[in-house]
Amino acid sequence: MKTYVLSYDIGTTGVKTCLFSIEEKIELLAAASQGYGLTILPNGGAEQNADEWWDAMCVTTKKIFKKKLFKKTEVTPDMISGISFCSQMQGLVVIDKDGNVLRNPMSYMDQRAKEELKEGIAYGPQIAGANVFKLLKYLRCTGAVSSSVKDPVWKYKWIEKNEPEIFSKIYKWLDVKEYLICRCTGKAIMTQDSAYGALLYDTRKGKEGWSKDICKMLGVNMEHLAPIIKSTDEVGGLTEKAAAELGLKAGTPVFGGGGDASLIGVGAGATRVGDTHIYSGTSGWVGTVVDKQMVDTTNMIAAIVGAQDGRYNYFAEMETAAKCFEWVKDHLALDEVDIYLDKHDVTESSENFEAEYTSLYDYLTEVVNKVPAGSNGVIFTPWLHGNRCPFEDPNAAGMFFNIKIEDGKSEMMRAVLEGICFHLRWMLECEDKKTPTSNPIRFVGGGALSSATCQMLADITGHKVETVASPQNVGAVGAAAVVGVGLGVIDSLDSVREFIPAVHTYEPNPDNREVYDRNFEAFKLLYKNNKKAFAILNG
Prior knowledge:
The protein is α+β, with helices and mostly antiparallel strands. Strands 20-21-22-19-18-25-26-27 form an eight-stranded mixed β-sheet, with helices on both faces. The chain has a five-stranded mixed β-sheet with strand order 3-2-1-6-17, sandwiched between helices.
């Protein structure tokens, strides 16, 4: 018997609502998406509107069940066995006792709490930017330290200092999906991975839960913290009000789900110890499944709590990955009036051209493939919104390096994709210092839709690269897997790989190794040699 589940992938720029069937494999039946805003403020803030998240969920859910849009399924709302979420992480949503949002949610990208970070952790004798005594307490309790300006606790402390009236009304502090679960069920909870993402979660055996020691050290009111559950736990059923707005059946079970860093690896089928996946979406990361906690404070990598009991994701993150190629579309391509004209055959009608190039990204990928590996020496740094690993620096920025008179936009476009892959290789090699990464690697996210990028990643890293069906939807696949385990139709998250086979494999091309190794060495020097300049311009 097929089991039907609905999952919501709550991203930085939009929601993807996906309907899946679970039988011998997890199969996508229908999907709908809708965007929403992200407000970047002059003081480093990054905020979103919670009602826009909910409205996008309601619109896309109703689209799913309109047969005229999705004829291949006759699934009706009453046939849905469970609902879950995959979401952006390390946001901050503060609510009152009635579940109302007290201010615009603060995105994981928010960087305004620099003073709070400095006062809270970064003074006195330091290691890796953290007070050595607080660092040791942190590592003993949680296995990681909150030393990034973007970590939720500093956003919380920023509200306490700058918006005391709002702070006085706080009932609970939630992450993004937890707020949406609360809106669905009326219950405030926090899954283990989200609690760990707040870096207030004690991971020691027998002491799992909110850390009293860390909360006391940082001045966090523990009454603001919600009860912690597992990703596969059922929170409750849809309320009558939420069901009516979503167009679903009241009482439909809602499960905890997980953050993107937890469930994208699950959706990639990388759930066994030693499995490595690479994600390229708005942000990007390298994640390897390990069975013990580890931390590399020098390179800003930590083994974080995920959706699986007894498993951790050794996790290295970059702030902007495929987002850089979106920047290419907006600023290197669309400002060219003739981007849709085939210069070799200007007599072709626009209709025929559009039939050949069904999207601008397809066209740009074809342009990129005409440029030789190494982009004729042009290098791009993909730090369009600062960076986290292997260095934490909100002042770091993107740049093109080594442009010569014979180079043009085609070289620059390829250099952007290579720059993303160079940074992923850098993080992959940093992970290898602590734990072996796998070969092959599962590559997922919107960046994995391009065969050119997949081959480039294989060539630059030297690893075999595998992709899965609908790689841009793996977060939603992971959320569906969580429901499957919660309902008992999948034995455990360890066995999820059996439900998610690879569909394409890319072998490294040895002919490109030399030029990529050369460019990679230059790429790594660019931050070291320009760190002071970034601070002068952006500090």
